[in-house]
Amino acid sequence: MRPAPPPGFVQRDVDGATFLAREDVSDALIAAGLSRPERLRHRAHAEYAGRGRPFAIDVRDVGAVFVRPYLHGGLLGKVTNATHLSDGRFRGELEILVAARTAELPVPEPLAVISRPRIFGTRIGWLLVREEPGAQDLMAFLSASRFAVERRRVLEAAGRAVRTLHDAGFEHPDLHLKNLLLLADGSVLVLDLDRSRRVPSLTNEERLTGLFRFDRYAAKQAARGAPVSRVDRLRFLRAYAGDDWPERAEVRALAGRLARHIALHASARKGAQGANS
To answer: Which of 86, 106, 107, 202 has an alpha carbon 20 to 30 Å from 183's alpha carbon atom?
Structure first.
């Protein structure tokens, strides 16, 4: 028995694909040929860096639609790439996005997920969300921005956006600079809620896991020569903490934990690179 679609969404079988789309745009997305997204890449008005080369196309009566394929990462990705055992991962992200948007949280506007069959009952899938014109991820912003006041404003907006998500019980397993999107109006969206989950309340350790992941990524980019300073990282964390910034002794303890966390992952990464060389 098929699981019920999220509120406001409908499920349809189109051209061999399972199409789970928002009811008010489903006909337009289907008419545009999005049951087979890869066939529309030649119509893209924008292509983006990242696994699977996401792209955006214009759809009549809908507007600009961002198309992202679902791929495996890490070692598994080298073997299975886009093939999944089921469409549970695709549906899971859609449900999280719908719940977050319903709660008026800073995440992209979900439009649909598409699932197509592969061999032996496996699936491939794509996520469709509203494209944000003029937006850029925070890594791109920091690489281009030279004005301290502008950097401070954007990093503080990013910290508040993540705090809002956490306060609502949404855990994000892959927080980093490229998963935070700066919009033209100065607000920030949290991207890529793939494998995220929602709980009644996040513990401090669950929050710290996400923040440590974010800071580890920023430190790694800085080590590679990217223009991400310790001040930038601290501004994000201070904005996240808001009035809950801990006492000096706790700050020192957390800074020590974070430094050890970064060093441990850097050592593990070098070991993996050495083994593959």
So the answer is: 202
Instruction: Give the up-direction half-sphere exposure of residue 10: CA atoms within 13 A in the CB hemisphere.
Output: 10
What is d(CA 232, CA 154) in angstroms, rounded to the nearest whole number? 10
The answer to whether the pTM exceeds 0.85 is yes
In eight-state DSSP terms, residue 178 is G
**Can you identify the CATH homologous superfamily of domain 136-272?**
Transferase(Phosphotransferase) domain 1 (1.10.510.10)
Cβ(159)–Cβ(240) below 8 Å:
yes
> Cα separation of 12 and 97, whole Å?
20
Q: Domain residues of the chain, as ranges?
A: 9-130, 136-272
Q: Are 217 and 173 spatial neighbours (Cβ–Cβ below 8 Å)?
A: no
Distance (Å, rounded) from C-alpha 207 to C-alpha 249?
Answer: 19
Distance CA 146, CA 188 (A): 19
| 43-57 residue pLDDT tens | 999 999 877 899 999
Q: Which tens digits make up the pLDDT trace of 151-181?
A: 999 999 999 999 999 999 999 999 999 999 9
With tokens 């495996």, the residue in question is: 72
**147-to-115, 144, 152, 232 alpha-carbon distances in Å:** 44, 10, 9, 12
Question: pLDDT tens across 75-128, in order?
Answer: 555 566 789 999 999 999 999 999 999 999 999 999 999 999 988 889 999 999
Region 184-202: what's the mean pLDDT?
96
Identify which of 218, 91, 248 has the alpha carbon closest to the alpha carbon of residue 155: 218
Structure token digits, residue 37 = 């997204």
**pLDDT at residue number 140:** 95
In order of 155, 208, 241, 277, the CA distances from 252 in angstroms are 22, 15, 15, 37
Task: List C-alpha distances in Å: 177 to 123, 157, 216, 222.
Answer: 30, 13, 10, 12
